[in-house]
Every structure is written in structure tokens, then in C-alpha cells.
Design brief:
With about 180 residues, the chain is an alpha/beta fold. The chain has six helices and six strands.
Length: about 180
């Protein structure tokens, strides 16, 4: 994954809003979910090559792209866990993988918005959302707040929100998208 042309190293300092405008007034900004990170990191999993290609596609798309901070922590939890399928990665390998995505592939880490807890709980209550899908909702809120228009995941049940396209780049044809984006 090579460095994207025109990406200044200053973008790795203080977080900046990644939303920018194009001719139509809306620019596509991509966020990547935890499962794609895990698959791209784990050479032994069946989805490895496809996930790696998807991340390379995001990095080389000419669009801004990032990783919600909670996905970084979930990635770490999964790949360094002692009972992880394929064996645990060393913390240095997990850190190196994320660092490489930021430094050479142009990923931006998307922090959660300040009001994520009350907003997430309110929306979860309105949606009658139960169980671990609350984490999907948190990721969706973080993505929307950062100006993301498309979230890539290999989770068919991922909880999205209006204004955010959900795309499975590992699905056949790479064009499986769902959602109701708002302009």
C-alpha cells in the first residue's frame, strides 16, 4: 500500500474534519469497519486478499478515508487476544499495521463526537436496538460526524443511519450498497 500522492504529513497531527466538497457539493468520504481491518491483517483468513484489496482501493480512490477510533480499539482487542483464531498478534504487529495504514495509505483516525453517548442512547432507544449492535450505531454516528458518506464492512447486519451508505466490498461485484443517503 503506497503513499497517496498529495497527502501532507501534517494531516496526522490534530484531527481535522475530513468532509470536503466537490463539483456536486458532496464528496465521498470512506470509513472502514473493524472486520475489514482484521481480515487484511490476518494473512491466514480466507477473506485476507479481498480485504487487503478493499483497503488498497479506499487508499487509492482519490477520496478521503479513515477508521473510526472505536474500530482501531476493537481491531486491537480481536487480533491481540490470546484465543484469537490463527493465534494472537503481538501488540507491536497490531500497532505497526494501523500505523502503516495512517502513514503509507493515508488513513485518518476518526474520533467519536463529543455528544456520542447521549445521541447514541437516544437513537438506540428510538430504533429499539438491543445487544452488541449498539457498537455499530456508535461507529455510524462517529462516521457521520466526521463527514463520512460510505462505510465499508463485511457485516450484512451492520446498523447504519440515514445519510450513510453501507457497502460490502467483499461481496461479489463489490457494489452491494444499502442505505438512504441524504443530501
Amino acid at each position: 500500500m503506497g503513499r497517496r500522492p498529495g497527502r501532507a504529513s501534517s494531516r496526522f497531527g490534530r484531527f481535522r474534519q475530513v468532509l470536503s466538497l466537490d463539483v456536486d457539493g458532496v464528496r465521498k468520504v470512506i470509513a472502514v469497519d473493524t472486520n475489514l481491518l482484521v481480515y487484511a491483517h490476518r494473512a491466514g483468513c480466507p477473506e485476507h486478499e479481498q480485504a487487503r484489496s478493499a483497503i488498497e482501493e479506499a487508499a487509492n480512490s482519490g477520496e478521503d478515508w479513515g477508521i473510526p477510533a472505536s474500530c482501531v480499539f476493537e481491531f486491537w482487542s480481536v487480533v491481540t487476544h490470546p484465543a484469537s483464531a490463527g493465534g494472537a498478534s503481538r501488540p507491536s504487529a497490531a500497532r505497526g499495521f494501523i500505523h502503516g495504514l495512517m502513514e503509507t495509505a493515508g488513513a485518518v483516525i476518526l474520533p467519536p463526537p463529543a455528544a456520542v453517548v447521549p445521541r447514541c442512547l437516544q437513537i438506540a432507544d428510538q430504533m429499539d436496538l438491543c445487544g452488541p449492535r449498539i457498537f455499530d450505531l456508535q461507529i455510524s454516528l462517529t462516521a457521520l460526524e466526521a463527514g463520512v458518506s460510505e462505510l465499508w464492512t463485511h457485516d450484512a447486519g451492520f446498523v447504519g443511519l440515514p445519510g450513510l451508505w453501507i457497502r460490502d466490498p467483499l461481496a461479489e461485484g463489490s457494489s452491494h450498497r444499502r442505505g438512504v443517503p441524504q443530501k
